[in-house]
Structure formats: structure tokens, C-alpha cells
Design brief:
Blueprint (H helix, E strand, L loop, with lengths): L12 H9 L8 H14 L4 H6 L1 H7 L5 H5 L3 H8 L8 H21 L2 H5 L8 E2 L13 H12 L7 H10 L3 E2 L6 H8 L3
Parallel strand pairs: 1-2
Amino acid sequence: MKKKSCTWPGTDTLMLDYHDNEWGVPLHDDTKLFEFMVLDAFQAGLSWAIVLKKRDAFRKAFSNYNIKKITKYDDKKVSELLNNEDIIRNRMKINAAIKNAQAFLKIQKEFGTFDKYIWKFTNYKPIVNKWKKMGTIPAKTEISDEMSKDLKKRGFSFVGSTICYSFMQAAGMVNDHVIECFRYKEVQRIDN
């Protein structure tokens, strides 16, 4: 018998693997948090399936998300990224990734880790929602509005409220699996 699941991954194997193993799992590793910030920004206006297909190429193109290296990217590196057909080539998003890496380092310096900073928005624990249907899940919330505003104030870009909420879902800050999904209870038991 097939397990009940969220419907958004469809039948795409990459999307299913992401849903079944990553989405909604509480994440506390700064490098992975930065990766999701970058990917969510690049996803703006596109589908998550496109981003997942290019995920390995992004990792390679962006120095395995070595934040210190990314802060030093110059015009030559930006040009190289704009010519990399394996990633989403958008100058504004590439520049945002560099700018966000710089802001990310400032937060790490102030809070010790980005993890300590970002999880304060949910009182350092995941928000467990109880959605019955995918269509009732919001695109943004008051918390993502607040996060977006604070990140922008700290120098981040491509961090609108919808992108922030998508990031919160990816990083397990919210459990937005529908209640009948087999992952709904599983992600609640995962202790990172």
C-alpha cells in the first residue's frame, strides 16, 4: 500500500526524494542554511523542480557554499557564473548570493552562528502546522514578514516574505507537511 504524502512533489523522483528526506527537517548547519537561502532566491519566479535539477551544479559553481570564498567573488567570477549553463543565470540573483554571503558572515560574527539568529524567529523550535489540504498552506506569514524585514535591514536581498517562508519550510522551521502525509509525524521526531 502506498504511503499518503503531500501532493506537491508529483511523480518527479528528485522532488519525491527531496520531500521524503529533506523538506521540513529541522536544519541547524550554517552551510546548509546558506545553501537553502541561495537556492530559494534563485527559485524566485521558477519551479523548485528546476532548482533541484541544478542543485549539484549550484553547489559546484558556488564553491560548495564556502561563505568566505563567496564574499570574495569579483566581476570575473560573476561573469564565469553568468556563462555557466548548468545553473540559473541571473545577474541580480548571482549578485544577491554574494551580497547575502557578506551579510551572513556579519550575522555569524554577531550571533556566533546564523542558526542562532534565524531560529529566534520561531522561538528556537519548529512551528507544527496542521494543514489538511495543500491549498490551505500560506505563501507567507507574519513571521516570514518579520524575518524578511530584518534580513533586508541587515543587508540581504532576494529575501521577500514568500522566499523567507519557502526557506522556513525547507529548513524545517515550519512543518508544512499535510497531516495525512507520512512525513508529518516523522519530521517532528527528528532531533537535529
